[in-house]
Each structure stands twice: as C-alpha cells, then as structure tokens.
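Key result, reporting period 2: structure in, sequence out.
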C-alpha cells in the first residue's frame, strides 16, 4: 500500500516512541515473570523439604511402616494447597492436582531430586528411598501469569496512558507538517489531462510556493502542445485501423503489441488453422535475427486441402538513431487474387491445348479411317483356319477404335457442343447415371448411399452433358475406392449470392488427392491413373461452364474426396424473367 506524506512522517515518529515503551514494558514483564517463577520454585522446594521432614518425624513416632504410610497419605489428602503428587514405583498414591501420567512422564522414572520446568507446569520433585516414594509439588504456570498481570497492571496502565499521549502529539505534529504538501498532492490528483486549464492556487513564499509556481508554468506548456499531440495520435490510429491490410507490431523480442482491425479480421477468418500465427511468428523471428526486412507469400492448406495465401511484408521498426525497437508486419489475404491468376493461367493453357488438340485430332482421324478400312478388308480375305492372323487383325481394329475414342474426347474437349438447356429432374438423371455404372459399382462392392430430397428438384441444364458429368465424377470416385468402400451422394437446395442452386455432393472414402496435385487436377492430360488420359475433369469443368454450373473439390489425402456440383435451380416464371 502506498503511503501519503503524512503517514511517512507519522509512522517513523510513532515507531521511535512505541518501540522504547514496548521494550521497557517487555523487560519489566520478563523480570517480574522471572522473579515470580523463582519465588514459586523456592516455595515448591520448601514444601518438598517440609513434607520429607514430616514423613521422617512421623516414622519415628510410629512402629508400623504401613500405619505410617497411611497417616502420611491421610495428612496430605487434607493438605490445603492441593498441589502434591506421590508415586510409588510409577503408581499414583496421591494426585491432588489431578495430573495425567502424560504430564508426569518426564520425571516418573527419576530417583533423584530436581526441578522440571515444562510448557504448562512447574514441578519440583524428590525421592524418598526408604519407601521408594517420589514426592512431587506442582504449580500451573497459567496461574503464575495471572498473578504477574495482577501485580503489573498499574505499570501497564501508566505505559498505555503515556503512549496515547505521545501518539496524539505525534499525529498533531505530522498533520501540520504535511498539510500543505497533501493539499498540493490532492490538486495533482484532480488534474484532467484532457483539459489542462486548471491551476493550483497556493500563495506561499516558502519552497511549497516555489513548487506551485513552477507547476503552473509546466501546465501552461503542456496545455499548448497536448491538443496537437492528441490529434496526431488519433490521426495515426485512424490510419492504422482503416488500412486495408493487416498490420501487426511487435517489440524487439517478437512479443505482439498491437494489431489493426484488418489484421484481426484475417486471423479470425482463418482461426481454424493453428499454423497461421506460427508461420507469421517464424518470419518475424527471422527478421529479428537477421535485422533485415523481408517479403514473402505464406501458403497454407486447410483441412479440406483448400489452399489460402497471405502476402507478408516485414519491416524493421527503428528510432532516429537506428536503434532497433521492434517489427512492423503487414499481411493481406491474396487468396482470391491467386485463385483468379490460377484460373487465367488454366484458361490460357486450356485454350492452347484445345487448339492443339483440335488440329491433332483431325490430322490423326483421317489416316485412322483408311487404316481401319484396310485392316478390315484384309480380315475378310483371311482363311478361317488362320486364327492367329484373324486375332492379330481384330486386336489392331480394337486399338484403332481406342485411338479413335481418344480423338473424339480431344474434339469434345477442344470444341464442346453447345448446351441445349431445358428443365430436367436432377435426381432422376442421377439415378440413371448410377444405373449405367451399376456393373462397376457391383464389381467393387461399393456401399452406395443417396441422400435425396422429397421432391425431385428441377434444373435448367443440358440433360446429356450433365449425365456425362455425373458419370465421369462417379467413375473417378469408384476408381479411388477400394473394395467395400463408401460413396455417398447428397442432394440439397441452397441460396447463394441471391440465386437458387441445386447442390450435389459426391463423397467417397478413397485415397484422396495429395495436396501438391490438388491445383493440377483440372489441367488437361494430368492424371495419376495409368489407364487414364487426364481429360475427365477438364471435360467436366467445361461442360459445367456450358450449363452455368460450377464445381468445388475438397480432399484429404488417405481419407477421401468430396466433389460439390452446383446446378441452376429452375424456379418457373421467376427464372424465365
């Protein structure tokens, strides 16, 4: 607790007065206690000696030892002090003070005379060897203390009266010394630093008056600059809080000091990812260690393998003398920009690949037609007995058909057909697609589950194209599943950006997509399937764009993949308008 000036003056004076008085009272008490205890000890010793002398005298007058002992016990039983204890070989013969054996344990086995000064009892004892008796006289120390207090109560009363008088004098003196200083301190407490118009009104010619005048002059100087400083501070805080990028400041050890509103929003947006602050702190630590600023991009993968990106710029916070005092870390969420850049790159890549694929498809298909016709003609000219040649020509026709199918996929990819949109029942179309792939589902014993709506939603789509989308997505899911794997298809309606959508989620428990491959799955000819050509998802994405739909993919490696398909929901006249 902080002491004011009056108490700082008062307490030392009080201590210097109280301590001597208490010391004298303590010495007086201790001396009286010592003398009283000595007197009690001598009294107990005298009682023991008188008791032993009485026993000796009675023994000379009586012939029988038993009669003598009985008379002694009868005599001491009526002794008016009631403070005698007699033991014979550890057994109680007489116990006037009603002591317990625990009280007598310290002296019970002694065959000598002596004094026992215990915590609560003072005992003087002696041993009568002829009868093997131990005589003990006892006094309770609490009764001694009561006697001592009764004796010294007048001394204590005088000491207390003198102490009270001294305290009153000390309080009066301290109050008069501290009064002007306390008045000055109380005024300082009432000062409002948002309004420095107040001044202290003390007219004295001593040191307090000089201090008051200097204080008033200081207030005038502070008042002249305080408003400018406050305005500058508010202006800087407004700039910091309204900046569109997150700004985080730290001290020289990397401990966070402030963060603006945009920074808090970014961290709250991705608070489910515990690594974002760790990565920021790592880059801040590098800047502190190297004493150099840095610019970098942080890439983080969420649980669903969706990546998000932060652009980070770290600068050193220096004073005018180049003293390093902390870090300024600016960071912004560039996920949307990076996704847009990736989409532009992908569109350019698709356009280039599409042009190349279209040219190559036409160049390949023409010779394939002639080659297939020639082989088929040769096949008709072979004798039926030449089974080897017949099988060879059949295999050649099969491989030519495979190449022709590949060419057809390339043409579909490069020049997709125009979508013929019409109202289509989406759940029925999905079940038809599942029926087409029924053999593949049975072959892998897939556990299929469909969570559908009570009323089949209607989408404005090209029936054939969306059927191809469903088939491609289901095939990919089946290829990723092991035997007895799970495939769940959920259908629901939702409003997004003011438009009604039919959302189909295809959730499998397959091997998932590695994070490093997730951004490349829409690239043409990218595939991890040795039997695939890498055009499935590219075609799916192209067909969905033709049907004003969209696709999102979430995947966790070795756990599974979820593909979300969004199709425009038909809402009757509202949609047509």
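The corresponding designed sequence is given below.
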């Amino acid at each position: 607790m902080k002491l004011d000036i009056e108490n700082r003056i008062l307490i030392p004076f009080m201590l210097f007065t109280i301590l001597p008085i208490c010391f004298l009272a303590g010495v007086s008490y201790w001396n009286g206690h010592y003398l009283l205890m000595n007197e009690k000890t001598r009294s107990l010793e005298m009682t023991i000696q008188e008791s032993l002398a009485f026993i000796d005298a009675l023994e000379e007058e009586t012939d029988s030892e038993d009669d003598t002992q009985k008379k002694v016990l009868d005599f001491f039983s009526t002794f008016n002090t009631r403070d005698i204890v007699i033991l014979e070989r550890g057994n109680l013969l007489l116990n006037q003070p009603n002591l317990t054996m625990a009280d007598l344990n310290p002296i019970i086995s002694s065959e000598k005379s002596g004094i026992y000064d215990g915590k609560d009892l003072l005992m003087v004892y002696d041993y009568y060897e002829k009868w093997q008796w131990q005589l003990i006289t006892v006094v309770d120390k609490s009764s001694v203390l009561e006697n001592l207090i009764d004796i010294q109560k007048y001394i204590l009363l005088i000491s207390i009266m003198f102490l009270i008088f001294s305290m009153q004098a000390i309080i009066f003196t301290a109050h008069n010394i501290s009064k002007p200083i306390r008045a000055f301190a109380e005024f300082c407490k009432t000062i409002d630093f948002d309004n420095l118009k107040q001044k202290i009104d003390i007219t004295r010619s001593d040191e307090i008056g000089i201090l008051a005048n200097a204080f008033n002059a200081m207030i005038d100087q502070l008042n002249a600059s305080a408003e400018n400083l406050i305005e500058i501070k508010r202006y800087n805080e407004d700039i910091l809080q309204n900046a569109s990028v997150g700004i985080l400041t730290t001290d020289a050890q990397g401990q966070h000091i402030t963060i603006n509103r945009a920074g808090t929003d970014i961290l709250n947006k991705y608070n489910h990812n515990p690594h974002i602050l760790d990565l920021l702190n790592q880059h801040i630590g590098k800047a502190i260690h190297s004493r150099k600023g840095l610019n970098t991009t942080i890439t983080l993968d969420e649980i669903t393998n969706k990546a998000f990106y932060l652009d980070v710029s770290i600068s050193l916070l220096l004073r005018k003398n180049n003293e390093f005092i902390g870090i300024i870390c600016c960071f912004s969420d560039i996920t949307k920009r990076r996704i847009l850049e990736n989409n532009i790159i992908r569109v350019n890549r698709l356009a280039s690949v599409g042009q190349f694929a279209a040219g190559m498809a036409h160049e390949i298909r023409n010779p394939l037609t002639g080659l297939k016709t020639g082989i088929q003609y040769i096949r008709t000219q072979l004798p039926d007995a030449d089974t080897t040649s017949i099988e060879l020509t059949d295999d050649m026709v099969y491989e030519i058909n495979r190449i022709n199918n590949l060419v057809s996929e390339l043409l579909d990819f490069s020049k997709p057909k125009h979508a013929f949109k019409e109202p289509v029942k989406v759940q029925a179309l999905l079940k038809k697609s599942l029926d087409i792939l029924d053999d593949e589902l049975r072959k892998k014993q897939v556990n299929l589950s469909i969570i559908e709506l009570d009323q089949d939603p209607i989408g404005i789509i090209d029936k054939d194209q969306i059927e191809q989308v469903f088939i491609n997505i289901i095939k990919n899911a089946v290829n990723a599943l092991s035997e007895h794997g799970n495939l769940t298809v959920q259908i629901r309606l939702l409003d997004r950006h003011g438009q009604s959508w039919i959302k189909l989620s295809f959730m499998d428990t397959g091997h998932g997509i590695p994070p490093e491959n997730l951004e490349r799955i829409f690239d043409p000819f990218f595939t991890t399937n040795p039997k695939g050509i890498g055009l499935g998802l590219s075609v799916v994405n192209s067909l969905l764009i033709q049907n004003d739909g969209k696709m999102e993919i979430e995947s966790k490696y070795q756990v599974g993949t979820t593909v979300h398909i969004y199709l425009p929901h038909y809402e009757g006249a509202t949609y047509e308008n």
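The domain at 243-333 is CATH 3.30.450.20 (Beta-Lactamase). The chain has a mean pLDDT of 79. This case is discussed further under Risks and Mitigation.
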